[in-house]
């Protein structure tokens, strides 16, 4: 499901216009992005938690040449589903 499809489903369920539902989705994702940039976790009870995960620097291999390369440390956003979401999926 892409954003326009999600906005349409939310609009149908809530009675909002599709444009307003799209604005709500944009505001939601903006707030999660802002919290992640501050290093904060975002927990939606029953749905899941968005958190920052640190990756250590490590050695890797260039698949074309087989040469060893240094992969720098980085941060990424992870998602851990909540119990209700896990139970719904099966």
Q: Please, could you describe this protein's structure?
A:
The structure is a single chain. Helix content is 43%, strand content 30%. By secondary structure, the protein is α+β, with helices and mostly antiparallel strands. The protein has 2 domains: 38 residues, no CATH class; 48 residues, Irregular (HU Protein, Chain A), CATH 4.10.520.10. The strands form 2 sheets. A 3-stranded antiparallel beta sheet has the order 1-2-5. A hairpin with a 6-residue loop joins strand 3 and strand 4. Helix 1 crosses helix 2. The longest helix has 20 residues. The mean pLDDT is 95.
Helices and strands in order:
Blueprint: H1 3-14, H2 18-37, E1 42-44, E2 48-55, E3 58-61, E4 68-71, E5 74-81, H3 83-89
Antiparallel strand pairs: 1-2, 2-5, 3-4
InterPro entries: Hist_DNA-bd, Histone-like_DNA-bd_CS, IHF-like_DNA-bd_dom_sf
GO cellular component, one term: cytosol
Function: Histone-like DNA-binding protein which is capable of wrapping DNA to stabilize it, and thus to prevent its denaturation under extreme environmental conditions.
CATH superfamily of the largest domain: IHF-like DNA-binding proteins
- The best one-word shape is elongated
Order of H and E elements: HHEEEEEH
**Poorly predicted tracts of residues:** none
Note the total helix count: 3
What is the CA–CA distance across the termini?
19 Å
Q: What CATH architecture of the largest domain would you give?
A: Irregular
DSSP strand count:
5
* Helical proportion, percent range: 40-55%
Counted up, domains total: 2
The radius of gyration is 19 Å
Structural class: alpha+beta
- Biggest sheet details: 3 strands, antiparallel
Q: Strand fraction band? A: 25-35%
Averaged pLDDT, please? 95
* Strand order across the largest sheet: 1-2-5
What is the name of the CATH class of the largest domain?
Few Secondary Structures
GO biological process, one term: chromosome condensation
InterPro entries: Hist_DNA-bd (IPR000119), Histone-like_DNA-bd_CS (IPR020816), IHF-like_DNA-bd_dom_sf (IPR010992)
GO molecular function, one term: DNA binding
Function: Histone-like DNA-binding protein which is capable of wrapping DNA to stabilize it, and thus to prevent its denaturation under extreme environmental conditions.
